[in-house]
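Changelog entry: the Alpha/beta hydrolase-fold protein record was regenerated in this release. Current contents:
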Amino acid sequence: MKQYAVAMLCAFILSGFAGFSQTSQASIVEDFKPSSVNQPGQEYPQVNSQGYARFQILAPEAKSVVVSLGLGGAKGGTALTKSEDGYWRGTTANIMDEGFHYYHVTVDGGVFNDPGALNFYGSTRWESGIEIPAHDQDFYALKDVPHGNVQQILFSSKSTNTSRRAFVYTPPGYHKDKAKQYPVLYLQHGWGEDETAWSNQGRVNLIMDNLIAEGKIKPFIIVMTYGMTNEVKFGGLSSFKIEPFQTVLVDELIPYIDSNFRTVANHSNRAMAGLSMGGMETKSITLNKPEVFSHYALLSGGTYKPEDIKDKSKVKLIFLSCGSKERPDGVKSAVSGLKNAGFNAVSYVSDNTGHEFQTWRRSFKELAPLLFKQ
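Regenerated structure tokens:
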């Protein structure tokens, strides 16, 4: 476990450098538009059809302004150039991977968020966000289809002596048919994020709405809660213990959900999945509590081996995924081994992405239709 946790942290660190692809600045197409996750009415940051990002920051007294994308920045960040009007402007040296990216601005050594962009919780703080248009973005687009509901709940946690928060997605029609019951997916965020990540950065509710409208999935409930990961300081994941969160999830949150929502409250209709460190949590808890979950999914979050699982009859699905810029051979090899051992195992590799949300959006799109197929 300790070795795996360190490996996951290293993968997350490297994600700060995985968001760029090489091309020539001389070929930049001047069709820049405001990012779709800008503050209302703000023109910057901007993105173009190739995947370049352009920034504009007002700091007339500053001596240096650098935009850093990803954890720790990428290739030293994008240094902006000051103009006579007091604005600092600049364009990324290389095109970026499609999808969502965190970033921040360093002004004379101080770290700030871009006032032009919306903020998203990641890297244990609220970071600016930018959305690079993707060729396949239609599957998580906001469409004129019936929409589910994402609601905040507070549940009592005796083990931590607190009230804790979770967000619950209920599918379209949940509040109309009072007799229908639903399976449940417990979906975990990554290191440095919180329970808002999957709906804000991942757009999981829109992915669900669109898949349901297309008739591609059986509707189910999704529960997203804080994974007790941010208490671990950066670089200290080797000391991470799963037991406190396992108690919160299994002994406190699941009973609350089953008592307050119309769930099919049994092992066959309960799944757990997570991205990155949430995958590590998923693996640990599903192996520790095989009687609780029947569907397992690790998104850039490691793999299972056949010998990890004591009772094959309790596992209905194992889904493993990652980006093509991560370790796809490891995911494919693991699934091959699981299949040979008689498991229903599926692999997915997101093309031309790394340890980032476009990988996990695509992974969820592939996972959802496989869940709870009776």
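The chain has seven helices and 21 strands.
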